[in-house]
Amino acid sequence: MALTSLYAGISGLNVNSDAISLIGNNIANSNTIGFKSGRIQFKDIVSSSLGGGSAGQIGRGATTGGISTLFTQSSFETTTRGTDLAVDGDGFFIVADGGTNFYTRAGDFIFDKDGLMVNSSNLTVQGWKVNEEGQSAGDIGDINVSDVSSSSKATSGVSLGANLDSTSETKFVINDYNNRFVLNYGPAGGTATPTAVVVTLINGTYTGETLANELQAKIQDDTQFSDSATGVALPADFTVTYSKVTGKFTFTNKTGNPIALDVTTDASASKTDNSMKELLGLEIKDRSDPVDGIVDDILLVDGTNVISDQLPRLSDKLFYVNNNNNTIIFGVGGVEYQAIINVQADPYTSLFASDGADRVPAADSMAVALQTALNAATQTTDPTQLLSAQADRPNFSVDYNELTGKFTIKSDFVGTVGNEEDVRFKWEDERTSAEQLLGFASEYDPNNTKTVTSFTITGSKGSVDSVYAPNTVFDSTAATYSTAMNVYDTLGSPHTVTFYFKKQGSNHWEWHAVMNSADLDNGIPNDDGSSRLMEVGPGGILEFNPNGSLKSETGHNDVYFNFGGGADLMQEIDINFGASTTEGGSGLDGTTQYADSSATFSQTQDGFPAGSLSGVNIGSDGLISGIFSNGEIKALARLALAMFNSPWGLEKKGDNIWAETIKSGNVSIGLAGTAGRGTIVSNSLEQSNVDIATEFVKMISAQRAFQANAKMITTSDELLNEVVNLKR
What distance in Å separates the CA atoms of residue 672 and residue 665, rounded to the nearest whole number? Predict the structure, then answer.
């Protein structure tokens, strides 16, 4: 029996030696990230029986039954590296070596020189590619950011929040394009022909009151007001006042004679003699009892007055035409024509002369110049032009819409019925240079596919409209407030757009989007080559409620920018000043009007330039988002997590990784946060789950057991020695 105890002691030494080794390994890895401690199980050995079932069994010692891994969750260590990851749950990160997958809880990952996400052993981390919405696609593979970039995004919308000071004065700028006004002064009884007098003001900036005073003084002091029959000067007791409340002018006649405010252009006056009328808010419409037969006069008999029909238009639209933007190629049937808009030093305007039922552009307006050029082209006698029968030709008329800033070209066929031909404007023709001057385009279609197309007037009658409001020269002098912001073209280049606000009157403001001519594809510089301000689009009106909230806005949804530098033309940008009360909003989330200093408190736009990857952010769902130098955040990939029915069956491969075995069961790969895989914690590493105190207790226990088994061997040795001594 002593011999059996000897072998039992030896087995005890062996198993406790294994225990000491395991404990030593646990303690050695107490600071190894993601390490899971092991636990040893002993089992006894039965070698003989004295009979009688269990009552007669004698054991032969112990053996190591198995070593299992304790996959208990450990605490997290916070780090400063965004690619340090931990799993809060039962899942495993997946890493690969040449196509073979391994599994780990150690998330000390980095991106290597090739853009691959790897662990400390240079194994590549596995995950899915994702679309722009962050949705996973395809099979898992290496996470690689080497080919990731942030392409530029053209601005499609801007939002502006600002307060416009309700106490601001309205400013009126008098210049060469709006400084004249015509009155027709008739003597008592109307027995003689009225005298047409052109009143010209000195150029400069006026308030409403100073403009009214200057206009009144100019009229009263003008010696041209006289009786045409006798030549005797007549008193000109004619007053002009301005109301800050309504923003309108009042004209009062107390001269004893009828006076007509001529808001049209008659045959005897210069074509620019009524350029001030729109600044004064005098709308063109049918009037009664004209003094001189012109129905657009405003007749003021003695003791009567008239108030401006509408708020002043503070900004004139000025179109500069030169040899680079004055040509239009169009066809009628199979015949081609070339229209040349007359080049002049002064700009064309968008002013109106008269209307009757419809407004008619003034003689010096862009609309009239275009109409003249088109009609002249089909009547040319130039032998180099292809001519159809002059009797069968279109007769063009052109109108301009102040609200949209667009031109309308109408065609009314002149000639034999049945000989009508379609009119096709060839804006895509390289010989046509006036498309941007007029707001047409060489690459455009209504479905926004940007295919090259033309614009056709079909049949005997019809019309075509400008695609966008063309750029016009802008005078910022009358602006009450301005604020600037950058927007981006299709190439990612920034362009500064300045928004100018001009107060029309109480609760009404003009707004204008303005850029430097050098930044625009069709910008017109000053005569000395320096850049000038040009308005993009038609601008619009902001109307406010009495409580300062935004009531309505116009002109914000149809602004096309033709940026210079080779970017796509006709870039549409929606300009949002907030949700007005007319639209169902509060009117307080964007632009407001309070009796406080004008100031901008928010401005946003959705474009950005091209950028490079400067960092990543990893969410709890494993989504890896790239942070780019241009500020864009873009989904790049999504980490995969693995689970096993029996993680205790995984095989340790060293380097903090495990391998799948038959005992572990097949791997189940899925998203973080699903099926118990756990979530991912970034800027964290899972610490070893080794409990030093527990291991020390186990070490003491194993040491004592080892000592006891060693004593058993020495005791058995002494017993054997006594047996040997029996011979002596």
Answer: 20
Note the pLDDT tens digit of each residue in 593-609. 999 999 999 999 999 99
**Residue carrying the six token digits 């290496």:** 142
| Listed residue (609, 487, 453, 227) closest to 442, CA to CA | 453
Residue bearing the bigger pLDDT, 325 or 51: 325
Q: What is the pLDDT of residues 320-334, one digit of tens each?
A: 999 999 999 998 877
CA distances (Å), 563 to each of 376, 497, 500, 538, in order? Answer: 33, 11, 19, 16
Dist. CA 658–CA 651, nearest whole Å: 5
CA torsion through residues 211, 350, 403, 522, sign: negative
Q: pTM higher than 0.90, yes or no?
A: no
Q: How would you write 564-632 as a 3-class SS string?
A: CCCCCCCEECEEECCCCCCCCCCCCCCCECCCCCCEEEEEEECCECCECEEEEEECCCCEEEEEECCCC
- 281 Cα distance to chain centroid: 37
Residue located via tokens 């002018």? 249
Residues 6+ apart with CB under 8 A from 560: 467, 468, 469, 536, 537, 570, 571, 572, 573
Residue type at 713 in one-letter notation: I
DSSP, residue by residue, 232-275: -B----EEEEE-TTT--EEEEE-SSS-EEEE-S--TTS-TTTTT
71-104 tens-digit pLDDT: 999 999 999 999 999 999 999 999 999 889 999 9
Q: In this model, does residue 343 exceed pLDDT 70?
A: yes
Give dist(CA 184, CA 263) in Å, integer: 10
CATH of 157-167+475-605, one of 1.20.1290.10, 2.60.98.20, 1.10.3720.10, 1.20.210.10: 2.60.98.20
Q: What is the pLDDT of residue 234?
A: 55
Q: Which of 84, 90, 80, 94 is nearest to 143 (CA)?
A: 94
Residue 215 host element (H or E): helix 208-221
Domain boundaries, given as residue ranges, for the chain: 2-72+689-725, 77-148+614-686, 157-167+475-605, 171-307, 318-465
Please report, to the nearest 10 degrees, the dihedral formed by the alpha carbons of residues 383, 389, 391, 393 taken in order.
Answer: -90
Of 156-165, 187-196, 288-297, 567-576, highest mean pLDDT: 156-165
Average pLDDT score over the chain: 85
Rounded to an integer, what distance in angstroms lies between the CA atom of residue 182 and that of residue 206? 20
Residue 447 has pLDDT above 50, yes or no: yes
Q: What is the pLDDT of residues 246-296, one digit of tens each?
A: 899 999 988 777 777 776 654 444 445 677 888 888 875 555 544 445 455
The residue whose two tokens read 């939002």 is: 159
Name residues whose C-beta falls within 8 Å of residue 456's C-beta, 6 or more positions apart in sequence. Answer: 422, 423, 424, 425, 464
Q: In Å, how far are 469, 538, 577 from 557, measured between CA atoms? A: 12, 11, 11
